[in-house]
Write a structure and sequence with these properties.
Largest sheet: 8 strands, mixed
Helix content: 40-55%
Structural class: alpha/beta
Shape: elongated
Number of helices: 18
Distance between the termini: 64 Å
Strand content: 15-25%
C-alpha cells in the first residue's frame, strides 16, 4: 500500500526529497504545499499521512496535534539545537544536514521515533544533536519520589462555589508546607484572580499555553507567570474573556500540567464545566476537549454543587454526564452552602437522599453555608483559612485536605512496599567462595 507524503519545504531540499520519494515503491508525494495552512488542509482532506515541513513555518504543539488528530505524523527539519523542543511537541525532528529520508520511511512504516539523531546516532554534526548518550536531567526537572497529584475541581453550571472551594482547598494544602499550585483553567468563567484580589497585566493561562505551544514552557517561564501568595501558594490566573477559549488546546494543557507536576506536589485545577458540543463543521478540538483532558489527568476529581433545589438537579445531571467521560480515576461529590432555609429541616439527610436516589452518590462531602465568611473573604481578597479559621465551612475543607494528604501518604507507602518486594524478589548472583 502506498503512503501519501505532504511537503511544505523549499529549495533544493524539497527537490531532492521529491525525487527520492518518487523512486520509493511505497511512498508518493501527493501535495507540495505553499505553507503550513495548506499542508493541514490537505491532511484533513485525507490526502497524506506523513507531513514534512521545515521550521521556517510556524510549527507548534497545536499544529502537530491537529495533524495527529487526522492520522498524519509530523516530520520537522530544524537546527540540531531545536530537536529536543520539536520532539517535545510531538513531532519527529530531523537536524539540518541529516538525510530526512530514513525518518519519512520509518514513519510511513509505523515506527515510533522522536528524532533521526536519536534513532540513527552519529549522523549529525549539528551542535546540540543527540549522540545516543542520555544527558542527565537538570535538578529542577527531576521527579520527586512521591508522585505529584492533580486535583481537578469541576461541577454543575451556575455558581455553586467551584472557584471558592478550589481556592480554599489549595490554600489548605499549601498551609501544610507541601508545594502547591492553583491553576484557573475555567474557560467559560475563570475568576480565581478576581476572588483573590490579584491584579495581573496578562492572563497567566494564555501566556502559559502560548509557551507550551512553542515548546518553550520551562520552569523559569512558568515561574514568571505564577503569582505567589503569602502562604506560598502559587497561582496561575485564567483567561480574561471566555471568547478566547479556542486559544487553549488540550495538548497544550497536558504539557502545562506536566510542567506543573515538576514544580508542585499538589496541582489544583479549576476545570470548565461540561457544555453542549458544537455539532457544526469540525475545525479542531471540541468545546469540552480541555475539560476531558483535565478530568483524565486528575488523581482526584471534585464535583461541586450547591444545596439548593435547582442546584441539586443540575448537580445530578452533571454527575450523570461525567459517567460518560472516560479516564476519570476517582471522584468525590461536594455539596456547598448547606442550610436549613434552602434544603429543609434536615438538609444533610435531604441532600444525601436526593443524590443517592438520582445519582447513586451515598457519601457526599457537605460544606455548611457561611455567607459572612464568603463575603468577608471576597471583599478582602483572603482565603477562608485567613478570613475565618474556625468557620464550619473552612473546617470542612480543611478536613478534606487532610483526607487527601492521608490517602496520598498511604498510596506512597503502598508503592514503596511494592517496590521493596520487587527488589527482594530480584535474582541474586552467586556468592563467591572464600
Amino acid at each position: 500500500m502506498t503512503t501519501g507524503v505532504l511537503l511544505a519545504l523549499s529549495g533544493s531540499v524539497e527537490e531532492d526529497l521529491v525525487a527520492r520519494i518518487g523512486r520509493h515503491r511505497d511512498l508518493r508525494v501527493v501535495r507540495r504545499c505553499a505553507d503550513a495552512a495548506e499542508l493541514v488542509a490537505a491532511a484533513v482532506a485525507g490526502l497524506g499521512t506523513v507531513a514534512v515541513l521545515d521550521d521556517e513555518e510556524v510549527v507548534d504543539r497545536r499544529l502537530v496535534a491537529r495533524l495527529r488528530s487526522v492520522g498524519a505524523a509530523t516530520v520537522v527539519l530544524c537546527d540540531g539545537a531545536d530537536c529536543e523542543r520539536y520532539a517535545d511537541l510531538g513531532a519527529i525532528a530531523v537536524p539540518r544536514g541529516v538525510d530526512p529520508m530514513p525518518a519519512v520511511v520509518a514513519v510511513a512504516e509505523g515506527a515510533a521515533i522522536t528524532s533521526v539523531a536519536e534513532e540513527f546516532p552519529g549522523e549529525s554534526d549539528e551542535p546540540g544533536s543527540i549522540d545516543g548518550t542520555a544527558a542527565p536531567l537538570p535538578a529542577a526537572t527531576r521527579r520527586s519520589p512521591v508522585e505529584p497529584r492533580v486535583i481537578t475541581v469541576t461541577g454543575a453550571p451556575g455558581a455553586p462555589g467551584r472557584t471558592t472551594l478550589a481556592i480554599a482547598l489549595a490554600d489548605e494544602l499549601a498551609a501544610t508546607g507541601a508545594p502547591t499550585m492553583l491553576i484557573d483553567a475555567d474557560l467559560w468563567g475563570g475568576s480565581i484572580a478576581q476572588t483573590l484580589g490579584l491584579v495581573a497585566e496578562s492572563a497567566g493561562l494564555s501566556a502559559a499555553i502560548r509557551a507550551a505551544d512553542r515548546g518553550s514552557l520551562d520552569d523559569a517561564a512558568l515561574d514568571r507567570l505564577l503569582v505567589t501568595m503569602p502562604d506560598g501558594l502559587r497561582v496561575l490566573t485564567g483567561l480574561a474573556r471566555a471568547a478566547r477559549w479556542r486559544e487553549v488546546g488540550p495538548d497544550s494543557v497536558d504539557a502545562l500540567l506536566d510542567r506543573a507536576r515538576r514544580q508542585a506536589a499538589w496541582v489544583v485545577v479549576e476545570a470548565p464545566v461540561l457544555v453542549p458540543e458544537d455539532e457544526g463543521f469540525d475545525v479542531g478540538p471540541g468545546r469540552n476537549a480541555v475539560a476531558h483532558t483535565l478530568l483524565a489527568a486528575a488523581q482526584e476529581v471534585l464535583v461541586v454543587g450547591a444545596a439548593e433545589p435547582i442546584a441539586i438537579q443540575r448537580l445530578v445531571q452533571t454527575l450523570l454526564d461525567l459517567q460518560d467521560v472516560p479516564g476519570i480515576a476517582s471522584r468525590r461529590t461536594i455539596v456547598n452552602r448547606l442550610r436549613l432555609s434552602a434544603a429543609g429541616p434536615h438538609p444533610d439527610l435531604s441532600v444525601r437522599e436526593a443524590l443517592g436516589r438520582f445519582a447513586g452518590v451515598s457519601d457526599p462531602l457537605l460544606v455548611p453555608d457561611d455567607r459572612a465568611l464568603a463575603d468577608r473573604a471576597v471583599l478582602t481578597g483572603m482565603t477562608w483559612r485567613a478570613a475565618g479559621a474556625l468557620s464550619p465551612a473552612r473546617l470542612a475543607v480543611r478536613d478534606l485536605a487532610r483526607t487527601l494528604l492521608a490517602e496520598a501518604g498511604q498510596q506512597a507507602e503502598a508503592t514503596g512496599r511494592r517496590r521493596a518486594r520487587r527488589w527482594r524478589a530480584r535474582p541474586r548472583g552467586r556468592r563467591r567462595s572464600g
